[in-house]
Amino acid sequence: MKIKGYRFTCENPFFVYFKKHYCPYCGEKLIRKKVSQIIHTDSEKTKNYDFEVADITVKGNMKFTHTEFFCSVCQKQYSVKETKENDFLIERWK
What we know:
Blueprint: E1 3-9, H1 13-18, E2 31-40, E3 52-53, E4 56-57, E5 61-71, E6 76-78, H2 80-93
Parallel strand pairs: 1-5
Antiparallel strand pairs: 2-5, 3-4, 5-6
């Protein structure tokens, strides 16, 4: 399986890399993890992904990577959007 393209997406890098995030269930500090997925242009999932790299449309397998947060105690994984919502709720409870 040869990969013909690679894309790393980081939503709001200041929020992801410079702010501390905590699990809404146990209060443990969350760990950043890179999550990768290889998608082929002929699969059904292609409508959710952009296969353009430098104005060239890639045909074949492409690797998509993004950052998610992981709680080592609860073993739960959160997207950036979920973490933003959790941070808002945690601040509200204080």
